[in-house]
Amino acid sequence: MPKTADTADTAETPAPPRPPLPEPKEVRCRDAGVRDAFESASFLQLCSRIPALLAQIARMAWEVDRRDVLVLVGCQLLSGTAAAVGLAATARAMTPVLGGGLVPDRIREALPALIVVAVAAAVARVTYGVASWAVSRLKPRLMTAADVALVEAVVSVELAALNRADFADEHEAAETGAIRCDRMLYDAQAFMSALIRLVAACGVLTVLHPLMLPVLVLAVLPSGAGAVAEAKIEHRTHYANVSRRNVKGMMRWHVTTPRLADEVRANSMRAYLMFWYRTVSHRIDERIVEAAGLGLRVNLLAAVAGGACLTLAWTTLVWLTVTGRVSFAVSATAVVAVRAALGNLTNVVHYCTSLFHSTLYLGDWKRFVDRTRALAPNRGRETAPAHPETIRFENVTYSYPNKARPAVDGLDLTLRRGELVAVVGENGSGKSTLMRLVTGLFTADKGTVSWDGVDLANADPDTVWARTGLVPQFFAYWPLTARENITLGQPLTWDDDRVWETVDLVGLRPTVEEFPEGLDMLLARELWGGVNLSGGQWQRIACARALYRRPPVLILDEPTSELDARGEHMIFQALKDMAKDRITIVVTHRLDNTRIADRIVVMEHGRITEQGPFDRLVTAGGLFQELYALSQDR
Ligand SMILES: Nc1ncnc2c1ncn2[C@@H]1O[C@H](COP(=O)(O)OP(=O)(O)OP(=O)(O)O)[C@@H](O)[C@H]1O
């Protein structure tokens, strides 16, 4: 085939080099104060905090299951006592075993002590097993308690707090704390167990020779200091990666959720998204790998220093024996006791550091839960009226954090019962913010929003939300049954009549009747046995959820943006039919829909610039007329 000019050009002109993919923006955690608290703590300071940390863990576990805590503590005391008795009995058995005389006589003499050693070892084993059983029972419930407390704190927080820039990072750090609860309990148990055994071994050693104890402590100090330094490195690494992990988690959801799968594929986003995901993952890994090198250096240093100190300990023991300061039998007992003490001392240091490390994460959890609980609405005890006649905005201003301009700026407005009000305006003009102020989701920075004279800033928000029904701009696709999706947030009724009535209002009956399980159908394609709905069907479900509540204040933010003409007509008809018993506010960009409204409110830059019925505004020469003309100009 002859080449056309076009194809010839394409063949000869080399393709321009592709520009490199833009690197993902680096994000950083803000809470440096928390990290510094650990960074600056000395080993002794860390040790001094251990009793308080143990008490905190014990308190948390106590709330979960008192019996298991008592079993755990009882077992540890018993196992410590058994260890002490076992060591003391070993010392007693050594003298005849290593002394002079006939072997049968020596064994006979040592036998009672040897039996005590065997029984003590058996008791230690059994109590260890029972203690582990109690820990395994406590661990999952402790984690669940921490997790539930975290989730509960987040869902109860003032909405405005979620807009704080550091909220997501603190949340991510706190989640690590909730997850580490299981490790923390294990660490606490292992620490206590090693400590009790150590005290027992040290007691025996001190009786054998007073010089042994300080030498032993010296032998283990370097590894203790090394473990603390390593924990600090790990925690610093954790903080350095908090924001990256947070943003990676968000991105992971976006990349893998079936909700966005069409957009990801058909807009050929995969390559960049995978590049982004890999790059951020590598940044996280690099930080960890870098820390591993540092950790190795610290460990090697601790090992060399520890080895030297240990040599000193053994040399001292040999010197004591050779110079006759201790007998050969006592020296042999000392070897057993030193080994036991050394093992337990190493464990004490290891678990003490690990415990401290875990409790740092627990500190993140606790700080976040406490702070978040303190951010729960605490506005006053006034009760919102059951059927408000008027909602009044008086000179209301609201600004989002880090925004130069208020989203709602000195706004005055009165909404009356029986009235259907449409709110219109260009993107970003403040309509959704107005909706959040009507419902008390936000309280005004300046001015008042009141329901029949009750200022929402002083009203218990639950009493306000018990009277509202909201279709937000972004609504959830709850992975629940169709019935639950409609009745969510409402007390259950005995029959489904009202559910079906609502299903009819939004025109979903044919869809629901087609489901093999009707209202019991699970609306989640991702879950086994579930089905998915179209975007418009989901929006009908969101409308049904608000209408089912039959609320005295009904707010719909773009409720029909995804509906077909029939669906849109049905919803607006339903709103009109229901309007006389309530205050209804609809935000919409489809200006033809505003014909049914009793009043249209036009917003510009957070202010109301026009109000009135459709027929007047459409010829008033203002923004509404301009926007309406644009919507008709096709
Ligand atoms: N969570 C937020 N944090 C910071 N700024 C916000 C937030 N939500 C909205 N804004 C800002 O407040 C202003 C008003 O936003 P709002 O969502 O109320 O507008 P809108 O009229 O509902 O817009 P649209 O028609 O696009 O839905 C905008 O400038 C917006 O960028």
From TrEMBL:
Naming one, the record's GO cellular component terms include: plasma membrane
Where is composition skewed (Low complexity) in this entry? 1-13
Which Pfam family, any one, appears in the UniProt record? ABC_tran
Task: List the GO molecular function terms.
Answer: ABC-type oligopeptide transporter activity; ATP binding; ATP hydrolysis activity
What is the recorded membrane topology of this protein?
Answer: Multi-pass membrane protein
Domain of life here? Bacteria
What's the protein name? ABC transporter ATP-binding protein
Q: Which Gene3D superfamilies match?
A: ABC transporter type 1, transmembrane domain (1.20.1560.10), P-loop containing nucleotide triphosphate hydrolases (3.40.50.300)
Disordered, as annotated region: 1-26
UniProt lineage:
Bacteria, Bacillati, Actinomycetota, Actinomycetes, Kitasatosporales
Query: Which PROSITE patterns does the entry link to?
Result: ABC_TRANSPORTER_2
